[in-house]
Amino acid sequence: MDFAAALQSRVSRVEAGIDRLLPPASEPSSRLHGAMRYSMQAGGKRLRPVLVLAACELFESAPRADPLPAAVAVECVHTYSLVHDDLPCMDDDSLRRGRPTAHVAYDEATALLAGDALLTHAFAILSGSYSGDSALAASLVAELAEAAGSRRLIGGQMEDLLAERIPGATPETLRFIHLNKTAAMIEASLAMGGRCGGAPAASVEALRASGRELGLAFQIVDDILDATADTATLGKTAGKDAKAGKATYVSLHGLDAARRIARESSDAAIAGLRRLPGDTGFLAALAESLVNRTH
Amino acid sequence: MDFAAALQSRVSRVEAGIDRLLPPASEPSSRLHGAMRYSMQAGGKRLRPVLVLAACELFESAPRADPLPAAVAVECVHTYSLVHDDLPCMDDDSLRRGRPTAHVAYDEATALLAGDALLTHAFAILSGSYSGDSALAASLVAELAEAAGSRRLIGGQMEDLLAERIPGATPETLRFIHLNKTAAMIEASLAMGGRCGGAPAASVEALRASGRELGLAFQIVDDILDATADTATLGKTAGKDAKAGKATYVSLHGLDAARRIARESSDAAIAGLRRLPGDTGFLAALAESLVNRTH
Predict the structure, then answer these.
(1) Looking at domain A3-291, which of 2.60.40.350, 3.30.950.10, 1.10.600.10, 1.10.8.50 is its CATH number?
(2) What was the ipTM of the complex prediction?
(3) What ranges do the domains of chain A cover?
(4) pLDDT tens for residues B235-264?
(5) What is the pTM assigned to this prediction?
(6) Residue of B106, B113, B131, B180 to mutate for A, most A C-beta atoms under 10 A
(7) Chain B residues with beta carbon closer than 8 angstroms to that of A157
(8) Chain A hits for B146, Cβ within 8 Å
(9) CA distance A7 to A32
């Protein structure tokens, strides 16, 4: 199977998992459940959940548990963070994945609550779907809560916001933001996939280390695309960073250096992944595709 | 020990637990951690965490685990829900527990993120503090995620918001809102305390059933106080419901009937609690104090 087909089959599995594991929109509060589904069904690359599945596959001769619920939980957290990030008091963005953002399609309060509910639901999925293996359930909850918490994802978003308000962010600050706002959830995706696969602790650590490099590369590419691509290609507003006077790898280091750093990080990630057991071909190709993407 | 002293000793234990289990404000992002602590240290009755401790005490001859982390986790979720509920796009309230609300003391974006971080941290506390008993950890996560999720707490808040926009809420709608917006977390507090105490499944169910009645009584008393007390006594804006034209037990049933329904629910809760094993005196007195409170 070529990479595109292999990717598509995993994306389809994730989409089906999302549909199965989210409350039906017919159930009260139907407005809330409708908004949760609207946000989750907006498409997107499904990068993080596919990373969960792909990391689990490395250990597939004896997977410990089905990684799909963990993949959906990760996507719930990622989507909630986008919904809240798009709110008027944050980035105030009206377009996401080519569609109106949740607070535009519904309203601010509904988007706020749908985000809250998606975050909470991620933990309900983990505790519910892995109740037969409570040690795994507890470790997945710990992994996700840590990555999404105040020391990582939310801390990165807070510092990102402060950096927009106070110009002159240093390269160190920018690295802190990228490592926490973006890399944390990519690390957690790989580590959670490994845990579902029954990976030994050393492999979980190796997955996390590769995720860190991959996450950094991914966010630098995001900076590059914001500076070079157009809104129609991106499916979200392009040129936002420069307009906001926001420090990015492009503004701090220049386009060529940003491309080089992204390449170095992604090479480090891929080299790390290739040292893992099992067939690492798909995972390495996926990492490669993230740095070469055009949207 | 009289009730007031017994209550105060448990509240002090909760305050110490909060201080110990929240990230220090000195740790980056310090603005975010400062806002989390500001919101959590605003005081309040600490009702829910004290219910966790009190329910655990019923089984104290052989407690399964220290209930304090579970108590703090519950308070994190309760506080996050208040922080988000106070935001301009929701209730737009500037006063809470006699102090400026988080988005007034900081700003909207910081309050949003601090709420997100508190919700996430609740699950980090549960998975971290009970890692030695992963079956307990997973059951506490499931209990809290269910109570705080789209079918209960957030669903109740969504319907509450819709009821404010569309006048003419039925008694059934109002009951749905109260049972989910308020009772769900009180049920979960008692059930989680019971689980930490090692309660058998039937006792956990009995705790949850009493929590349901207690939560209903508590919210009806809230409605009554909003209609009858003043802002200085409440420590939050009084008379909001009538001003907003919001359906409450007072507006739908009248003051006398609202008082009677609150009394009936609280009697049912107390009778249920008294049937539990152990010394139920403190828990019953606590339930009693909630219906007789003046703020």
Answers:
(1) 1.10.600.10
(2) 0.95
(3) 3-291
(4) 667 677 777 778 889 989 999 999 999 999
(5) 0.95
(6) B113
(7) 113
(8) 124
(9) 31
